[in-house]
Design the sequence.
């Protein structure tokens, strides 16, 4: 059965029809997201989707290139390339780039029905239960055991947890659980839920963390684990299918990491990032850069490109990318285009993030002297700059 | 909380609003559009994660304003939980004040203080 899918296309009508069809392959909990912007799709966490349908030709980029990119992040998801042309070269190209299925774009009800039958075939139990062949099985363990083991070792890892029904992340940093999240929940509440995910098969993939994740869980891991009931202790009624939990893979090297949080940190001391011009000076546009405490910009992959007064470039790039990705999820939920700018108001600091299709700029202001006019001026200045 | 949100729904430009408690429970909501309560909950939780991440970075914030074209998502966190409103208009500080001047008394009547 299908639980979560993403349709990535520039054909709105096809997307709506396919979405309706895919929803019928699941149950009332099934979620099918539609994304019309390929660049924005790159900001989504693809691990949450077990099925991703993407067009061979997208507006902003080649669908096969995007397939390669996303497949690298979530090798266990099923990928279907949808094409308007059915020549052998297109078909071969799709499979060579890692597609699980090649589909001619359906345009009639009958074609849709046949396409959905084919997609359904991808999720027959005999196939979906097969662990990825290149990763192999690990020992039979529970999530709590893995978390405890990692914390005891003082590790810094991101655990990608995937059950039959949903997927989520647990961030462990220097032996403490810092953050847990899955669509709809985060923090301790998410962790408590995830510990009990036992829909028959839970996969955990560990990715080394090189940067400090955001912290939403403050209590020590021992206390956290003590307060949650281990899945194994819940009895057979909770795990009707056996509650089998196992680790699919070991640690993945940072080079093949799924999220930007694991990318190599930008140089900090040896190579200083290029700097913005001094605040207050005209910079080629009509608007002067207003007075800011610090500001920087990151590209779509979370790489810090420029900054001024940035004390910790890697942390700054991380938090900006984190917010960027989170707001991409919000945009999908609201079925709107990506956010253009965001203001965060705090007692001591105010922040402004300005985004476009190429990245995001982020500025920090002192609340004491910041005015709305200054924030507006910064947004205007950003819009005049080129990513 | 339902009474408060019945009135919040009447605020000009309001597309949807919700209050999510500290435990992540949707205590009240209204939507003048097709936005499911699950999605409202998800969005509120995401806003909370953003604020939490900023706290971890020593840049605590209590209010967020996100522009999606001409629509705006506003959220504010208090001790009891997070209130969020999705408005069919751009906002500035004056609009923000106008919004919370209306929302705060309604929530306070339900025992929720955002400030």
Sequence:
């Amino acid at each position: 059965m299908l639980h979560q899918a993403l349709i990535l296309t520039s054909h709105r009508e096809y997307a709506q029809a396919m979405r309706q069809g895919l929803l019928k392959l699941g149950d009332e909990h099934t979620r099918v997201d539609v994304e019309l912007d390929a660049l924005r799709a790159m900001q989504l966490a693809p691990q949450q989707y077990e099925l991703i349908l993407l067009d061979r030709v997208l507006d902003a980029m080649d669908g096969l290139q995007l397939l390669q990119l996303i497949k690298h992040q979530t090798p266990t998801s099923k990928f279907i390339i949808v094409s308007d042309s059915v020549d052998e070269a297109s078909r071969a190209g799709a499979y060579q780039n890692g597609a699980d299925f090649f589909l001619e774009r359906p345009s009639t009800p009958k074609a849709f029905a046949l396409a959905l039958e084919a997609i359904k075939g991808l999720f027959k139990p005999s196939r979906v239960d097969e662990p990825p062949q290149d990763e192999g099985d690990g020992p039979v363990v529970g999530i709590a055991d893995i978390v405890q083991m990692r914390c005891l070792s003082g590790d810094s890892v991101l655990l990608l947890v995937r059950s039959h029904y949903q997927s989520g992340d647990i961030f462990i940093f220097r032996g403490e659980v810092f953050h847990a999240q899955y669509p709809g929940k985060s923090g301790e509440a998410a962790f408590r839920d995830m510990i009990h995910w036992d829909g028959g098969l839970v996969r955990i993939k560990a990715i080394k963390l090189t940067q400090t994740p955001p912290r939403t869980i403050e209590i020590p891991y021992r206390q956290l684990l003590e307060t949650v009931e281990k899945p194994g202790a819940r009895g057979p009624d909770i795990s009707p299918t056996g509650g089998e939990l196992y680790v699919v893979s070991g640690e993945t090297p940072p080079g093949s990491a799924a999220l930007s949080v694991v990318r190599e940190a930008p140089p900090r001391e040896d190579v200083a990032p290029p700097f913005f011009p001094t605040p207050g000076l005209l910079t080629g546009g009509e608007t002067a850069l207003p007075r800011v405490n610090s500001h920087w910009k990151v590209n779509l992959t979370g790489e810090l490109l420029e900054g001024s007064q940035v004390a910790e470039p890697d942390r700054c790039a991380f938090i900006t990318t984190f917010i960027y990705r989170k707001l991409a999820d919000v945009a999908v939920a609201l079925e709107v285009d990506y956010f253009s700018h965001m203001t965060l108001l705090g007692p001591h600091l105010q922040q402004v993030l300005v985004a476009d299709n190429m990245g995001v700029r982020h500025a920090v202001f002192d609340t004491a002297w910041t005015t709305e006019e200054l924030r507006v001026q910064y947004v205007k200045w950003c819009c005049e700059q080129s990513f | 909380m339902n009474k408060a949100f019945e009135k919040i729904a009447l605020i000009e430009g309001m597309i949807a609003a919700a209050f999510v408690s500290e435990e992540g429970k949707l205590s009240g909501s209204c939507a003048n559009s097709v936005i499911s309560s699950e999605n409202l909950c998800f969005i509120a939780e995401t806003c909370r994660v953003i604020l939490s991440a900023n706290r971890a970075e020593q840049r605590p914030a209590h209010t967020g304003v996100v522009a999606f074209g001409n629509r705006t998502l506003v959220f504010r966190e208090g001790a009891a939980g997070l209130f969020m409103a999705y408005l069919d208009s751009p906002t500035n500080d004056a609009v923000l004040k106008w919004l919370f001047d209306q929302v705060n008394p309604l929530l306070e009547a339900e025992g929720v203080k955002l400030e």
